[in-house]
Amino acid sequence: MVTVSGVWTKRADEAQRALEQHFWNDSIRMYNIETPCPDGACNTIFHYWWMAHAADVLVDGYLRTKDPVYAERLEQLYEGVLRRNEGEWPNELYDDMEWMALAWLRAYEATGQDKYKQAVLTLWEDIQHGWNDIQGGGIAWHKEQLGYKNTPANAPAVILAARLYRAFGNPADLEWAQRIYTWQKHSLVDPSTGFVWDGMNRIGDGAIDKDWKFTYCQGVFIGAAAEMHRTTGDSVYLADSLRTFQAMHAELADAVDGLLPDEGSGDAGLFKGILTRYVAEAIKLWPERADATGWLERNAGMLWEQGKAVDGALFGTDWRQQPGSITQLSSQLSGVMLLECAAMLEAWTKEADAGHGGTVDADMQRAVTLGKDHDSVHSEEIPATIWDARANRLQETMYRNYWNRDSGIMDQWFPREKAVAGENFYYWWQAHVLDVLIDAYNRTGKPEYASQMESFSRSLYKYNGNTFIHHYYDDMEWTALALLRAHQATGSLWYKEQALALWEDIKTAWNDHGGGGMAWKKDQLDYKNTPANAPAAILAARLYLLERNEEDLNWAKRVYEWNKSHLVDPKTGFVWDGMNRLGDGQIDYDWKFTYCQGVFLGAGVELYRCTGEMHYLEDAKRTAGACMMELCDPETLLLPDEGIDDTGLFKGILIRYLRLLLEEAPEEEAVRRMIQLNAQTLWERGITWETGLCSPAWDTLPVLPVQLSVQLSGMMLTEAAALNK
């Protein structure tokens, strides 16, 4: 397995290796329930929910390391549990099914494998039948004891329903989450302290088991409240989570060092690990997190220093003492969960606090409200070091989720199974893949990005029939622009040669239909649009700056002037998409895209660089202003959701060329502010933290599947924010 740098990541690696070495049983494709377990003799009981948490820690390891070994083991565990459960997922215990569903939902979001999603949906359908009116509502614990309602069957159901809503966008799931949460809080949470009781009506008398004080119950309610806050943005839920954490600490943790108690073996061995998992999730949301992070690390430190076996990373139920001769899977999983949480917070805090005084979430929440007070925002509020880390993370996400080993280029969907047979190959998306790799190389100077650039470019060349020539002129322009940037970044002449070959073909797009201009594609020469003209002007201008060939400069000027005179509103500078699309000579005035504004203002900036003539730069500023007035939300400056497929790329392209404008016109603070606000909103509201997947609406969490075009826009925005200083 891969080892990642950092104290806690190394310890998490060692704990994962111990779990693998001492518990995995390949003959049953599950984990033994204790170690040692000669010939699997210990497996007399099928601990269904323990296997759910084993799947969860495998997802932890996979998300942290990207090592495919974890994904492979997940698949094997899936097969083993399904076989042991007689070929179906539901069982008699609603809480057990919730844990299994939560694990497979995380597995689906991490790997994109559709079978995990189907398992989740099957389980969720069954779980909903657990709700009944006994005790005023709530989900039952067991199918044969429908009147017994407890926290273990309700709080995890809230977490599941909220995550399902964020993953798939079904409003009914959010309604379920809110309904169950309301019942749980009203029925099983101490209104005076926030401490969470275990259950009610266990023996049919309606009484609450207030003496059953478990870390488990506190953890799942903290997790439920945190998920509801993530889903709705309502601060009440955040306050609930923090209040319960404080009550847990006062009631259950050691008064001196905060260490969690030994709650016993069997099922109870899992309780502390579950608590730490959901406290760690909540920590990322709490405005003040230092105390809670320190508390979690103290527990992890005690476990590692005093609670680990002498000969390996095996853990018992008491985190102050080494385990005995037999270690149960439940306590081992708790220890692994604790160490994975410490590792996750170690990485997250490094990103969140790099040169920064507050929490990322708090800063982003402030920034999201800045539309009401635009002048109070400054790009320095979140420093470039944080944006660097985020940009690097999205680069990793792209390769983990989209790279196809067979083709050497990127899949168009995550998960890739969502691709439809015979689906159009979006050649120009791949050009923007190369562009974002160049962004990363220019920003970091890391040679691995240069290697990825070359491997990817040659794979694209091969995939396209051993050529970059294509049917669409605008697609070729984007590819040539990326190749030219790759040449300038690395000095490789191959990139330059390919860009020049494309340019020769692109120039054949110019014709006299519509008074000139570059055609959009080779079988529709009379349709002229901004996407085929403004990028061509950028390309010609950059070629001039590289080669000082006057012919290229003349091309840049001629194409630019045609675009400006035919497809730019002379009153405002707003750029229209195209003309004569239907052969009627009409301009598509209603097609108002961020993309067109970006490429036209980018052409103006490049011509200003070539000539020093201010009118080009003034054109670019004017179009930027018209874009913000016409397309940005007036309160938040948020750019619109333009959808998926090709339009998923549009906002990222606009942002790329607004960044270019800032290089020549740094006084354009409104542009700088708009970029930063959109980036902060994306990272607060539009990205799933665990997977790094972006949404086409930068203020809404993504719903799977996520297209490559959409992901690339989020990457371009994040790369721009890393330079926005």
Please describe the structure with a list of short key phrases separated by commas or semicolons.
725 residues; mainly alpha; 3-stranded antiparallel beta sheet; 59% helix
Structure in words:
- The structure is a single chain.
- The chain is mostly helical.
- The chain is built from 25 helices and 14 strands.
- It has helices at 7-23, 48-65, 68-84, 94-111, 114-127, 151-168, 171-188, 215-232, 235-252, 271-283, 290-306, 329-353, 360-368, 384-402, 427-444, 447-463, 473-490, 493-506, 530-547, 550-567, 594-611, 614-631, 650-664, 669-686, 708-723; strands at 24-25, 30-31, 34-35, 140-142, 145-150, 199-200, 327-328, 413-414, 519-521, 524-529, 578-579, 687-688, 693-694, 706-707.
- The strands form 6 sheets. The protein has a 3-stranded antiparallel sheet with strand order 4-5-6. A 3-stranded antiparallel sheet has the order 9-10-11. A two-stranded antiparallel sheet has the order 1-2.
- A hairpin with a 2-residue loop joins β4 and β5 (145-150).
- α4 runs antiparallel to α5, α15 (427-444) packs parallel to α25 (708-723) and α19 (530-547) packs antiparallel against α20 (550-567).
- The longest helix is centred in the middle third of the chain and has 25 residues, at 329-353.
Short account of what is shown:
The protein is mostly helical and 725 residues long.
Please describe the topology of this protein.
Layout: H1 7-23, E1 24-25, E2 30-31, E3 34-35, H2 48-65, H3 68-84, H4 94-111, H5 114-127, E4 140-142, E5 145-150, H6 151-168, H7 171-188, E6 199-200, H8 215-232, H9 235-252, H10 271-283, H11 290-306, E7 327-328, H12 329-353, H13 360-368, H14 384-402, E8 413-414, H15 427-444, H16 447-463, H17 473-490, H18 493-506, E9 519-521, E10 524-529, H19 530-547, H20 550-567, E11 578-579, H21 594-611, H22 614-631, H23 650-664, H24 669-686, E12 687-688, E13 693-694, E14 706-707, H25 708-723
Antiparallel strand pairs: 1-2, 3-7, 4-5, 5-6, 8-14, 9-10, 10-11, 12-13
